[in-house]
């Protein structure tokens, strides 16, 4: 299982580095996606990336992919960590994990897909200021701590890959999806 996860991560990064765009645009897409993924704007992550792409020069594909760093399986634990950071910064006592999990689950519960659009407004309305304030503060700090280095690391890696590509004069196929290799074959064809 670990081998499959590691291979998947490596294939994702290989695909990311081969996107056909400037290093800045790809890195900005990843950084914005990482930043948004750590904010408690559940249900709006992808829409926020698309909206920001009209105002900031970023690669939408990289941003929409990076926003899934925090996903439905990881959201509540990540937000609890962010909440703990916020309570620590505000010198407030924190509620227990079980109470936070219950509160967050109720706040983000929806039965139909269209209710997801309102989950942030309605859901955060259910959270008390005792939880929402530290959660937002911690989330903004954690988002910054992860997204700023992500920009510089991805920009450097993409730049190095593009310089190498141009230096070799190779005309390598740019993969259109994470499961495709640089030679145009899918992983199943190998």
Mean of pLDDT: 81
Portion of residues within helices: 55-70%
In what range is the share of β-strand residues? under 5%
The outline comes out as: elongated
Quickly count the domains. Answer: 1
Contiguous uncertain segments of 5+ residues:
none
Structural class: mainly alpha
Main sheet overview: none
Number of strands: 0
Gyration radius, in Å: 19 Å
Distance between the termini: 20 Å
Element pattern in H and E: HHHHHHHH
User: Please, how many helices?
Assistant: 8
Report on the structure:
The chain is an all-alpha fold and 190 residues long. The chain has helices at 2-17, 23-37, 45-53, 60-66, 75-90, 97-107, 113-126, 129-168. The chain has one domain. The mean pLDDT is 81.
Record the SSE blueprint.
Layout: H1 2-17, H2 23-37, H3 45-53, H4 60-66, H5 75-90, H6 97-107, H7 113-126, H8 129-168
In short:
The chain has 190 residues and is mainly α.
Main attributes?
190 residues; mainly alpha; 67% helix
């Amino acid at each position: 299982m670990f081998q499959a996860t590691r291979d998947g991560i490596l294939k994702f990064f290989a695909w990311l580095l081969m996107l056909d765009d400037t290093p800045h645009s790809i890195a900005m897409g990843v950084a914005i996606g990482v930043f948004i993924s750590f904010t408690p704007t559940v249900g709006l992550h992808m829409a926020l990336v698309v909206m920001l792409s009209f105002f900031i020069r970023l690669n939408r594909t990289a941003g929409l992919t990076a926003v899934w760093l925090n996903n439905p399986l990881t959201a509540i634990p990540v937000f609890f960590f962010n909440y703990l950071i916020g309570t620590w910064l505000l010198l407030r006592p924190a509620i227990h994990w079980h109470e936070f999990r219950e509160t967050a689950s109720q706040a983000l519960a929806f039965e139909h897909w269209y209710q997801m659009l309102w989950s942030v407004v309605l859901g955060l309305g259910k959270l008390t200021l005792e939880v929402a304030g530290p959660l937002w503060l911690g989330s903004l700090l954690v988002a910054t701590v992860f997204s700023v280095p992500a920009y510089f690391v991805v920009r450097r890696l993409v730049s190095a890959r593009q310089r190498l590509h141009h230096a070799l004069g190779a005309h390598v196929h740019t993969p259109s999806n994470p499961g495709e290799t640089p030679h145009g074959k899918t992983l199943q064809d190998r």
